[in-house]
Write a structure and sequence with these properties.
The chain is an alpha/beta fold. The protein folds into three domains: about 1-70, no CATH class; about 75-270, Rossmann fold (3-Layer(aba) Sandwich), CATH 3.40.50.150; about 275-400. It is about 35% helix and about 30% strand. It is built from 16 helices and 20 strands. The strands form four sheets. A nine-stranded mixed β-sheet has the order 5-4-3-6-9-11-10-12-13, with helices on both faces. The chain has a seven-stranded mixed β-sheet with strand order 15-16-14-17-20-19-18.
Length: about 400
């Protein structure tokens, strides 16, 4: 393993990777078998990793000498923004700088690193020796000195450690062979089977899952869930987190969070399923302003609660768009309605060069169908919102407010 690291870390190899970051990797593979004694395949692995890290992991990208793992490991790792958020989330309930914890699915080491920044000590467990060495090397470059490394599985670590920690963190693999899986019991490690050990070893447990997992299914499979957190980055759902606590006995909170790429929280709302069920919503045709909740809120299912909280009217029971005459600060997109129109070929003349941003919500035609019917193209400054209220189908020209 040291031979592998040393070969990649040679100055001439690092210079080549930096200089050829944007090169066509397929052409590189055809042109060269080796680069300064390193196989072209390994060089391509580093080039692809570096490109992905530029936006996903800027601290790694901007640190000279970082080694990147195979693409699948980088794809499954957390982004820098979501890793920062998870570290802050755990520390809401734990003593900052004094707590100890375990990353039971260490992987590329992104979460381990950010957890270590505010912890006294973090244990990293990973059965893949090569991945462990890469993570350890990178952590050292980034200045992490309080991480201890264990070449072992989550199951073995839990079975043999005598210590009780403040937290456990797990990001189970959602792949078996080449197939993606979505049930928690199908992931590796199987967190459903492992949970009988969790509170023998820690007071808090944070589990990262696919954003495609159903919240209520996850809550049924796991015990002592204190909070379910949907994490979006710039309005794209990235992670669904389950925070478990040994003292949790009440209905779990649901938190919908939208982050900036920097990790800063743009918006965060919290509610319970019971609050959603009991919320009362009024319906109305579109008024002056139209609101679309961000992706995290929609995933959370806060369809009635969000209307009641912000004193908005909903267009229809199955139309998750909201309206008001007064402009409100809302966690999502806000539009001002310009006019009502018909979805036909005449629409094209309303927009410069035929470009408009098309939104279809609870409408019988998809965006592609609307483009074919009207001859419009995606783009420009204005929006065409196609939807329906309780009485009729609606097509509106709108401007984005925020």
């Amino acid at each position: 393993m040291n031979k592998f690291l040393n070969s990649i870390l040679k100055e001439e190899v690092q210079d080549f990777i930096a200089e050829h970051e944007n090169e066509d990797v397929q052409k590189l593979l055809l042109k060269r078998k080796t680069v300064h004694g390193v196989t072209a395949e390994l060089i391509v692995q580093q080039l692809i990793g570096r490109r992905k890290a530029k936006t996903k992991l800027p601290s790694w990208y901007n640190t000279k000498g970082i080694i990147y793992p195979p693409g699948i490991n980088l794809e499954q790792s957390s982004s820098e923004s979501t890793a920062k958020f998870k570290s802050d989330l755990l520390l809401e309930n734990l003593p900052k700088g004094k707590c100890t914890g375990v990353d039971l699915t260490g992987g590329f080491g992104i979460d381990s690193y950010f957890l270590s920044l505010h912890s006294h000590r973090v244990e990293y467990a990973e059965p893949n020796q090569k991945l462990l060495e890469i993570a350890k090397h990178n952590h050292q470059l980034l200045g992490a000195t309080n991480i201890t490394y264990h070449h072992t599985s989550a199951e073995t670590f839990l079975a043999h450690t005598p210590e009780k920690f403040d937290f456990l963190y797990l990001d189970p693999s959602r792949r078996k062979a080449t197939q993606k899986v979505y049930r928690l019991a199908d992931s590796e490690p199987d967190v459903v089977a492992l949970q009988s050990e969790f509170f023998n070893k820690a007071t808090h447990v944070l589990i990262k899952t696919s954003p495609l997992l159903d919240l209520q299914q996850g809550c049924r499979e796991l015990r002592r869930v204190a909070e379910m957190i949907i994490v979006a980055v710039e309005n794209e759902c990235r992670e669904l987190l389950f925070l478990l606590s040994e003292t949790s006995s009440q209905e779990p909170m649901i938190r919908a969070v939208d982050l900036k790429r920097s990790g800063e929280v743009k918006s965060s709302v919290s509610f319970t399923l019971d609050e959603e069920k009991k919320s009362v919503v009024a319906f109305s045709p579109p008024l002056t302003y139209l609101y679309e909740p961000n992706a995290a809120i929609l995933k959370a299912g806060a369809f009635k609660w969000i209307a009641q909280k912000y004193q908005l009217k909903k267009l229809a029971p199955s139309t998750h768009l909201y309206t008001s005459d007064q402009l409100l600060n809302f966690p999502g997109r806000t539009f001002k309605i310009v006019r009502f129109v018909k979805a036909d070929k005449k629409l094209k003349g309303l927009f410069p060069n035929g470009y408009v941003n098309i939104i279809s919500r609870n409408y019988p035609l998809s965006v592609e169908d609307i483009k074919k019917k009207t001859g419009l193209k995606e783009g420009g400054e204005q929006f065409l919102i196609c939807t329906q209220d309780e009485k009729e189908k609606l097509v509106m020209v709108a401007e984005r407010v925020n």
